[in-house]
Write a structure and sequence with these properties.
Layout (H helix, E strand, L loop, with lengths): L12 E4 L9 E6 L3 E6 L5 E5 H7 E6 L7
Antiparallel strand pairs: 1-2, 1-5, 2-3, 3-4
């Protein structure tokens, strides 16, 4: 049974388990919702991935903005 969703914010930079074909493994979150928009920081390619897949594949957070205060 899955646990609660991971708190993800716009502009978080995450390292994923699988590398992109360009060789990069760091991605910036550019869209939030049921699907997560990611932009590769190596080549700039954008992809849309199911939230559950992103949460499962996150290896670590490289950079996190301050959490929203509202």
């Amino acid at each position: 049974m899955p646990g609660p969703p991971i708190a993800l914010y716009m502009d978080d930079v995450v390292a994923l388990r699988k590398r992109h074909p360009c060789g990069g493994d760091t991605w910036r979150i550019v869209r939030l919702g049921a699907d997560i928009g990611l932009r590769c920081l190596t080549c700039g390619h954008r992809v849309l991935v199911r939230r559950s897949a992103v949460e499962r594949d996150i290896k670590r957070f490289v950079e996190r903005p301050l959490a929203p205060t509202d």
